[in-house]
TrEMBL record:
Taxonomic lineage: Bacteria, Pseudomonadati, Pseudomonadota, Gammaproteobacteria, Enterobacterales
Catalytic activity: DNA(n) + a 2'-deoxyribonucleoside 5'-triphosphate = DNA(n+1) + diphosphate
Cofactor comment: Binds 2 divalent metal cations. Magnesium or manganese.
Annotated protein name in UniProt: DNA polymerase III subunit epsilon
UniProt cross-references to PANTHER family, sorted A to Z: DNA POLYMERASE III SUBUNIT EPSILON
């Protein structure tokens, strides 16, 4: 029997700043990007990671979050210099991002600045938003990375500051935990069927539909991006 090999890449970024609502706006840049490979539900150890020179100052509020200074980035490559390596690493994969709209907006902005032939990464890759998965599993609760690590008993004591490399490694573990679990389904005839939702090579990825709030947020994002571009 033929099996379909599934490759997934967990992506996280750090940036020079954001606006008051925690979203991308024109002018801020990516200063760190990390990609972790998951192949057939296994973290392989293959990593793409680089710091990037943004050619602009880093907001004080952002520096307090990640601790990455302009001096540290002075001799680092620019995003345009890392594009080919980045796309070579993520090819033939689905992309897993926590709060995906934030990172996608920054990546698309960098692609535009570099005049790269791919303009919208979400049109070329399937994006899996791990925050949406968490919100469906734990509605009404906090679902940031620290909380999810605590919830799934994943060690994160070294996460004193945000780091794209560390955060993508933690998110890869969280994502595998969130998408491997057991659930009882009860039917009207009181017959219980135990559905095992382990996403190995024998199972298809479960598509979690966006709720009304997420759909409205996506509409707001699309309207915002039209104004930016």
């Amino acid at each position: 029997m033929n099996t379909i090999m599934k490759r997934e890449i967990v992506i996280d970024t750090e940036t020079t700043g954001m606006n008051s609502k925690g979203c991308f706006y024109k002018g801020h840049r990516i200063i760190e990007i990390s990609c972790i490979e998951i192949f057939n539900r296994n973290i392989t150890g293959k990593i793409f990671h680089t710091y990037l020179k943004p050619d602009r100052r880093i907001d004080d509020s952002a520096y307090k979050i990640h601790g990455i200074s302009e001096k540290f980035l002075y001799n680092k490559p620019k995003f345009k210099d890392a594009i080919k390596t980045f796309f070579s690493f993520i090819k033939n994969s689905n992309l897993i991002i926590h709060n995906a709209m934030f990172d996608i907006a920054f990546i698309n902005y960098e692609l535009k600045i570099a005049n790269y032939h791919i303009k919208n990464i979400e049109k070329n890759y399937k994006i899996i938003d791990s925050l949406s998965i968490a919100r469906n599993l734990f509605p009404g609760k906090k679902n940031n990375l620290n909380v999810l690590c605590d919830r799934y008993k994943i060690e994160n004591k070294n996460r004193k500051l945000h780091s794209a490399l560390l955060d993508s490694q933690l998110l890869a573990k969280v994502y595998l935990k969130m998408t491997s679990y057991q659930k009882n389904i009860c039917f009207d005839n009181n017959h219980k069927i135990k559905l095992k939702l382990k996403h190995d090579i024998k199972h298809k990825f479960i598509v979690i539909l966006a709720n009304k709030k997420e759909i409205n947020s996506n509409k707001d994002y699309l309207r915002f991006m039209k104004k930016v571009y």
